[in-house]
Specification:
223 residues; 12 helices
């Protein structure tokens, strides 16, 4: 009975893994066999879009870490009124349809958006620029990093951090030498997920940044 249960578990796991992998394999296989992949890799339009995607995703990842890590620390270590609401708001972009996320960004940063007047005073235009691409990527991908970082930091043994403080370590040294290494796996997973989500972003980008070649046309828009 035990062996049957194990075989069933492995069988179901294998079938679902096949379900997830087969469409991607078929897509890549078709692109290789009919030559479209090779043609795309030498196309100037595709190469420009690839460069733009790599640059914008790198910048969005830096912003996600700089702004998202403090939020993850607060959510992992602090208890305060309204914490559940903030966690729900942080997770909300994950479940929003991408086009709705782009519309929401327009309602905030657009010419008639909530921040239209301050942006006009500063003579700053966000929609349909490269900056809009980065903003859209951060909006849709940051929750993946924050969720993973929050989980990893919350799992760190506080006694180990306290022991480092007793030995004379500053808060910065405790974070760099104890917290980050112990939460490193979760932080790395969050970075990979966040970067991958930014790289594949389509709906919010085309709604908020448009599809201007050389300026906002990222790789998913070309593909």
């Amino acid at each position: 009975m035990r062996g049957w249960g194990t075989r069933s578990l492995v069988g179901v796991a294998g079938l679902f893994a096949l379900f997830l992998a087969l469409p991607v394999a078929a897509l890549v296989g078709r692109a290789v066999l009919d030559g479209s992949l090779g043609t795309a890799l030498v196309s100037p339009v595709v190469l420009d879009a690839l460069v733009l995607s790599l640059v914008t995703t790198a910048l969005s990842l830096v912003l996600t870490v700089v702004l998202g890590l403090p939020l993850a620390i607060v959510l992992a270590r602090r208890r305060f009124r309204g914490k559940g609401l903030i966690e729900a708001l942080v997770d909300l972009p994950i479940v929003l349809p991408p086009s709705v996320a782009g519309l929401a960004l327009l309602l905030v940063f657009g010419r008639r958006g909530l921040l239209a007047q301050p942006l006009d005073v500063l003579d700053v235009t966000v929609p349909f620029t490269t900056v809009a691409v980065i903003v859209a990527q951060v909006f849709v991908s940051a929750p993946f990093f924050i969720r993973s970082a929050r989980t990893g930091i919350a799992a760190v043994d506080r006694d180990l951090e306290d022991a480092a403080r007793v030995d004379g370590a500053s808060e910065g040294q405790v974070f760099r030498s104890v917290t980050v290494p112990l939460a490193g796996t979760a932080l790395a997973a969050g970075l990979v997920l966040s970067w991958a989500r930014s790289l594949g972003e389509f709906g919010a980008t085309i709604m908020f940044a448009g599809n201007v070649e050389g300026r906002t046309q990222t790789l998913p828009l070309v593909v």
